[in-house]
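I'd like us to work through together how a protein chain folds, taking it slowly. To get us started, please write out a protein record for me. Label the sequence line and the structure token line clearly, so we can match residues to local backbone shapes. Once you have written the record down, we can walk along the chain together.
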Amino acid sequence: MKTVRPSLPKRLALKAKWTTLALPWLVAGCVTPVEYGDIPHSAYVASDRCNPTAESQLNEKDKPFFFVTSRLPNCLTEDISLLNHRGDKVRYGRFDGPIAAAQDVVESKQGVPLSFTEPQQWWINLVDKMRAADGRVLVYVHGFKETFYTSSRDTAQISRLANFKGPVIQYSWPSQGALLKYPVDETNMYWDERNFRKFLMQLAQLETTKEIVLVSHSLGARLVLPSVEHVDRNVTNSDSSVISNIILVSPDVDTQDFERDATEEILSGRRVRNDRRITVYASLHDRALSISDGIHGYPRLGRPRCFDPFEAADLKARNLPERCYAAQPKYAEAIDKLALTIIDTTAISRGRTGHSNYLLSAPACRDFAAVVNGERMPEGRQATHLPHVFLLPPIRKGDKPDHLAICRRTE
């Protein structure tokens, strides 16, 4: 009896399916526990440089960015660095972001110039900067597989790309900076939720604060969303709608969980009327979220895979792309404001993983910068059959945008 070999597309689909199924087991077999190290953690932080009691003399031109971190610092060396372990407390400071291409394969050995500030003085310095910018502040929360170097580089790039005039704060949690440490990153992210929500609460309650632009990447969205909910429930002397512009880039969040919780609480009618909105950047070509999808079993908010095969078949029958997105809150039409906007970057994905289009692909970089600056409908978007979902169309044949120059923006 002759064996019928599947067609090439079917073979590739089967290969992809089995790779997705097998990958969690392969990763689990390679994951190693976090090692404490040869030096007591208390020794790393014993120096006064890790525990300032008064403001250090800082040159703001040398360290223009703010940071808050729960990472363990290393103050034993001449240049302070931040390790991948959990710290003994939350620390505040200033840093200068390295200028490097976001797609660098090998992390630069160059350190990040940083110094710690006594917490009360840090807040005083931040308020002064916010007053000069009409109360606007940007907070960036990084995602999985980041070191302080890579997240500082991205923070600086976001600031330059958007030409943001207010203070820019990086919140750095103890990601391990390694592909096979995903379970550790998840654990540390959940461990750090209390720290981040306390910080966000204090920032939202400042009289100076008029608008918080909150940007998260990847796993960072799972730190941000419940913290915003916490602030909404507990803020007392001001309206937490100052957390108005929430941008989730490639969010590693369960889509159904987001629909149920975030759109009912974070995007409540009152918040949306006060101009709160969420913008999501998603791509079906996001390989990092494809792995997360396989590990968790359900679609990620940042990768619009259709879990329901009947829904996918219906889209195909209507000659539409087989992509399924989080739904807009039902009350949004009555408010006449887009509470949730989803930007599909599938057609313009760049990089090895398609997980950072907002810093790598010119069309995504332009759109992202416009959203950071408050634009509701930047040019270049293409409408879809869903009123809250837009595509960034493929780059026209013959056009060759300088992605690096546009996305890094150094002027």
Notes: The chain has 15 helices and eleven strands. The first strand starts at residue 65 and ends at 74. Residues 102 and 242 are 30 Å apart (CA to CA).
